[in-house]
């Protein structure tokens, strides 16, 4: 059962990346995986269900990569900023652009309601709770702050993915993300303001 699901998800990821949701057909998934339509219906219900599973897999991997970037930055506030920047930067990857950031919202609806985004939210809440307990951030509702920080990173990634010049947009998006996010720090932690992006 798990092997069948994994084969279909891999086939779906390939087809959605190459053809987009609208251009991919059931036979693309089943032929690539060497399975029947019945296996697809049984495991995912329909093409939309398969897209949801593919998006969850990719978005979860994006979150894991972002967390790794945060660990490399030393955790804490620097780690949180590094996670956000890494997540936004992944919008340059063609399969992430097409599947997660373009087709995902148009087919599956509000990304903030996706299971993968909820897991990311919980991780951000935990980090912010640690920062609050150390007195490093201003007294503000942690869940609200986590939702807004994650929303900024997600919307920045959506902007990069839809841009005519993703690399230039990425630089502007990360600079703005870091500028806005730093507003939550207590004054002693904020440091000097960042240089304006050119």
From TrEMBL:
<dbReference type="GO" id="GO:0000976">
    <property type="term" value="F:transcription cis-regulatory region binding"/>
</dbReference>
<keyword id="KW-0238">DNA-binding</keyword>
<dbReference type="InterPro" id="IPR049484">
    <property type="entry name" value="Rv0078-like_C"/>
</dbReference>
<feature type="domain" description="HTH tetR-type">
    <location>
        <begin position="2"/>
        <end position="62"/>
    </location>
</feature>
<dbReference type="InterPro" id="IPR009057">
    <property type="entry name" value="Homeodomain-like_sf"/>
</dbReference>
<feature type="DNA-binding region" description="H-T-H motif">
    <location>
        <begin position="25"/>
        <end position="44"/>
    </location>
</feature>
<dbReference type="GO" id="GO:0003700">
    <property type="term" value="F:DNA-binding transcription factor activity"/>
</dbReference>
<dbReference type="Pfam" id="PF00440">
    <property type="entry name" value="TetR_N"/>
</dbReference>
<dbReference type="InterPro" id="IPR050109">
    <property type="entry name" value="HTH-type_TetR-like_transc_reg"/>
</dbReference>
<dbReference type="InterPro" id="IPR001647">
    <property type="entry name" value="HTH_TetR"/>
</dbReference>
<dbReference type="Pfam" id="PF21351">
    <property type="entry name" value="TetR_C_41"/>
</dbReference>
<protein>
    <submittedName>
        <fullName>TetR/AcrR family transcriptional regulator</fullName>
    </submittedName>
</protein>
């Amino acid at each position: 059962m798990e092997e069948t699901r994994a084969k279909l998800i891999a086939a779906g990821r390939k087809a959605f990346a190459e053809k987009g949701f609208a251009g991919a057909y059931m036979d693309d998934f089943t032929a690539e995986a060497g399975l029947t339509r019945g296996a697809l219906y049984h495991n995912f219900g329909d093409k939309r269900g398969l897209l949801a599973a593919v998006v969850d897999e990719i978005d979860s991997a994006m979150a894991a990569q972002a967390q790794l970037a945060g660990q490399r930055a030393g955790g804490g506030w620097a780690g949180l900023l590094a996670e956000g920047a890494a997540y936004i930067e992944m919008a340059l990857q063609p399969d992430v652009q097409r599947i997660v950031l373009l087709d995902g919202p148009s087919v599956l609806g509000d990304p903030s309601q996706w299971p993968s985004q909820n897991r990311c939210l919980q991780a951000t809440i935990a980090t912010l709770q640690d920062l609050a307990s150390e007195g490093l951030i201003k007294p503000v509702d942690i869940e609200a702050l986590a939702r807004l920080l994650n929303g900024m990173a997600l919307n920045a990634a959506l902007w990069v993915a839809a841009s005519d010049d993703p690399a230039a947009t990425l630089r502007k998006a990360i600079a703005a993300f870091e500028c806005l996010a730093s507003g939550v720090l207590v004054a002693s932690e904020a440091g000097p303001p960042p240089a304006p992006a050119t």
